[in-house]
Design goal:
Blueprint lengths: L1 E10 L2 E11 L4 E5 L6 H8 L6 E6 L2 E2 L5 H6 L2 E4 L11 H7 L7 H14 L1 H5 L10 H13 L5 E5 L7 H16 L3 E6 L2 H7 L2 E6 L2 E7 H5 L2 H8 L1
Parallel strand pairs: 3-8, 3-9, 6-7, 7-8
Antiparallel strand pairs: 1-2, 1-4, 4-5, 9-10
Length: 232
């Protein structure tokens, strides 16, 4: 579905992403894991059109690197960003509808709102509650739901479990599996290495902007180096 080839991202004199190459097949969960500053968020933000980079990002045979973020969303690629970034003064449903801003199929939008509510029943209970009054876990659910509302083929989730209690982490990862089972492709950015590798078809480990290891998720779970560095 999407290939990243020799991607480089700079912030002034800082070389944040150093020749990263990824392959994200249709219908798979691919995860990037690594410590803070490894280049994970910079990679997905560049795919989403929010950062400039060098190299190539190939989607359906076309290099989309450098295209505006709105064009990327229209191609079926959506990002749920780190930090949630919901609009606190808008209601849950208004936040969800913002995620569908590129769409004009009213019936389809209504159907997808109900689908998101089926994934996150707590959001339906709070449909007209201001987003800023939700708990951290509920805001994370809303951020993921908003990304799904553009009806993407590829969903990029940047640190969906960050700051959540263990029970909510388990719930979020169960939902990620359900979204994949519904035919979506997922690029998952995570510091929770065990949870990410347990669910991923394939994984890349980033350190200081470079891929240092890759392989099937279950294989990396058993890798001694990964166990020592990321699994404790």
């Amino acid at each position: 579905m999407l290939k990243v080839d020799d991607l480089h991202v700079y912030y002034g004199g800082i070389h944040a992403v150093k020749g990263v190459s990824l392959n994200i097949p249709q219908g798979h969960i691919v995860t990037l894991i690594g410590a803070n500053g490894a280049g994970k968020s910079s990679t997905v933000r560049t795919i989403a059109g929010l950062e400039k980079g060098r190299g190539a990002i190939i989607h359906k045979g076309e290099n989309i690197l450098g295209k505006p973020a709105e064009d990327i969303v229209r191609r079926g690629i959506a990002l749920s960003p780190e930090g949630r970034r919901i609009l606190p003064h808008l209601s849950v449903e208004e936040n969800l509808r913002l995620g569908a801003y590129i769409r004009n199929d009213k019936d389809g939008i209504a159907k997808d709102i109900e689908w998101v509510y089926s994934l996150f029943p707590r959001l339906k209970e709070r449909a007209w509650q201001a987003g800023g009054t939700l708990s951290g876990g509920e805001q994370q659910m809303l951020a993921v739901g908003r990304a799904l509302m553009s009806n993407p083929e590829l969903v990029m989730l940047d640190e969906p479990s960050l700051g959540l209690a263990p029970l909510l982490v388990k719930e979020i990862f169960n939902i990620i599996g359900k979204v994949r089972d519904m035919g979506k492709t997922i690029l998952l950015i995570e510091q929770n290495a065990f949870a990410a590798l347990s669910i991923a078809n394939y994984a890349y480990i980033l350190e200081t902007g470079s891929v240092v290891l890759e392989g099937p998720g279950q294989e990396l779970l058993r890798n001694p180096m990964v166990k020592e560095a990321y699994l404790g």
